[in-house]
Amino acid sequence: xxxxxxxxxxxxxxxxxxxxxxxxxxxxxxxxxxxxxxxxxxxxxxxxxxxxxxxxxxxxxxxxxxxxxxxxxxxxxxxxxxxxxxxxxxxxxxxxxxxxxxxxxxxxxxxxxxxxxxxxxxxxxxxxxxxxxxxxxxxxxxxxxxxxxxxxxxxxxxxxxxxxxxxxxxxxxxxxxxxxxxxxxxxxxxxxxxxxxxxxxxxxxxxxxxxxxxxxxxxxxxxxxxxxxxxxxxxxxxxxxxxxxxxxxxxxxxxxxxxxxxxxxxxxxxxxxxxxxxxxxxxxxxxxxxxxxxxxxxxxxxxxxxxxxxxxx
Length: 313
Fold this sequence. Notes:
By secondary structure, the chain is α/β, with parallel strands linked by helices. It has ten helices and eleven strands.
């Protein structure tokens, strides 16, 4: 039977400044000072860019799979927040899963080593993880409140500006070269050209697409033509999640934060409306195909088209 190995588990999220390499070096240095591990083999498993609020991480899944196959004898982490920020999940693994599998768990900065510890010590650690979890929730709530307040003022909170704009200090400013492309797209649409033909024309003229590669597609043209950002309207809050442990879900339009005239428009409301009217005519004239492609590309425009008419001041 193959000898069991130890696992050095390291994790960082996108928001953290610490590197995976530094975290790994810290743990390897810790183990090098432990004579009892001098003859043992340790494998590094890393999750880079993943939150600790859930266990949906490729590295942690691999680790737990190895534990289930009884290939591991010890797991070493820098602190409990690296393994998990969910106190209920941590409690389950520390009190049930790992003991049943004979796993020794070491959290260096928490001065925790399951070897020889009694139940009361484990309860103390679970309380500590609960505080980690509470702190994460509290901080997340404060960050969301700040972002929502900034969005209510009309500031752009997206990570990347919409095609045609550049972002400076959470405000949108026209990108002169790309802004002209947006104007041309709306002009073509208002004259009756379909989204697909507009995309083909842009590709023939070798106009760089919003993604930077792959060419223009009908969906990217539809997204632009139905986005009220191009008439100077800021829209945010289109998706949300109840808490850190839930995935993001789309929010209904009446729950969005919308503010008019917060940045320079690239097209007039008259041209925007004309483009929508032409596109609406084509949708009535051409039924959806059997594959449902038209419904797929129209879900965004169906929610945004009436929005520009009812923007809250």
